[in-house]
Amino acid sequence: MESLSKEAVAMLALFETKAKSVFPTLGIEQEFFMVDRGFYQARPDLIATGRALLGAKPPKGQELEDQYFATMNQRIMACMQEVEWRMWKLGMPLKTRHNEVAPAQYEFAPIFERTNVAADHNIILMQVVKDVAARHDLAALFHEKPFAGINGSGKHNNWSMSTDDGTNLLDPGDTPQKNLQFTIFLAAVIRAVDIHADILRVGVACAGNDHRLGANEAPPAIVSIYLGELLDSVVKNLIAAADVHETPSQNEHMRLGVDHLPNLPRDATDRNRTSPFAFTGNKFEFRAVGSSQSVAWPNIILNTAVAESIKFLRQEIEKASLKASSASLPPPQSYLRAAPKVVSDCLKKHYRVVFNGNGYAEEWRAEAKERGLPAFNTTPEALAIVDNEKNTKLFTEMNVMTKGELISRQHILIEQYNKEIMIEAKTLANIAKTSVIPAAMTYQKRVADVISSALSASVKLPLTRQQEHLTDVATSIESLFDAIHHLSTSIKQVPHDDESKASFYMQATVVAAMKEVRHHCDHIETIIDDDLWP
Fold first, then answer.
1. How many Å apart are CA 365 and CA 214, to the nearest integer?
2. pLDDT tens digit string along 83-109?
3. What is the DSSP string of 470-501?
4. 530 Cβ contact partners less than 8 Å away, ≥ 6 residues apart
5. 185, 169, 416: which is closest to 292 by C-alpha?
6. Is the pTM of this model over 0.85?
7. What digits encode the pLDDT tens for the residues 510-527?
8. What does the angle CA 269 – CA 275 – CA 280 come to, to the nearest 5 degrees?
9. Cα distances (Å, whole numbers) of residue 202 to 61, 199, 207, 240, 251
10. DSSP class of residue 223?
11. β-pair partners for 39
């Protein structure tokens, strides 16, 4: 934050805009699940890992969107109102609460605050939600993907920059194309996201987030920027030095086709839920952060990257002001003349990171590769590049972290990933061996006894489908035994001499083995007696 303030104040000083400090602001949309505590306590996987490691998909999930658009359950409402009251007493007022898309999924959002304060308050909010939920005989789940087959949870970071007098540096105003201050800081953010997309991806890398990024419910693992129609047109005009009057109007109204309804203003920001980093009016929404994460780490990265870009643009403006066309002008006129060309060149060079389409589309993955944008689909891939030369230079030259501190964070994040996957793997293997297998074998015996009795009857009975069912049960049990053995062997063979190597092994081998175990467990759940299912 200090680095960002220093560079932003220096940039504003070029144009004689007085500011004592500039600080990043943050509004955090915290998503989570809330389930009955009795159900939670009956699930050792939820208790140990925060997510259901097995469980067949039910016939109805979120297909009807009847959770998102429904009134809130009264039991949940009482719990959330108590959370709001407790947060208010702690001096941390919450602004909104609502249902989310998935069944039993909800969201809180606070009032915008300085980023460091918002990060602390979010941690307190998560603890208060857990404590209050227990008082209402509920359990709050902050894992990014507690249940397969329905949406997971994120922690959307709505980020901007503000001066000490309250001026939002990312507020485009009524005529963004003529707002030089806005375009300079916008260009700085676009450049930062383009150059430092890899380390921004690191900021949202964790075991839980691997289940949701790019899964048609959350932003893709490819970091890009969404600007919306209006702002994208402004940027293109700035790049081309085109007539600024060609930009769409910011004050358009929706045409409803009903005369007796009033004209309603159209939001020009076009919120794109498939973008990991979208401009939304007067801020950027960093949507890829995981629901269980502390927002401190991703925002340290974002603040540092933007600070470095502001510094770069300031230096470029200072250099350009010394050239012939501006040399005869005194500051700030020389800077005002030089700045538009610097902004235009910056936007032109880094426009490749702007993508206003569907981030879920397979075509975007191919296009992003052609553009040269980095794609890290898993946490081990992302964490491997934390200490590369570019990222080390970023943090050290901006005096945010030393190389040793950066490497320490890398080690901690890799170790945390390895431990979380290992806990999940051991928990799943144990549940499969001690609960699913016994239940399936008990059911197999029941079916076999029934068929055996029928075969010994004095009359010939049609048993083909029953025998096929028994074969399905027996085959599934045998396949599950094989999968458990493979998972157990994979766990034993995790390399211990290199934590980074271990993380790649975990992701490629252990996680794959877990998916195989779950596949067979989920199939068995659909074919055995409900009374026997653990």
1. 10
2. 999 999 999 999 999 999 999 999 999
3. HHHHHHHHHHHHHHHHHHHHHHHT--SS-HHH
4. none
5. 416
6. yes
7. 999 999 999 999 999 999
8. 25
9. 31, 5, 12, 33, 38
10. -
11. none
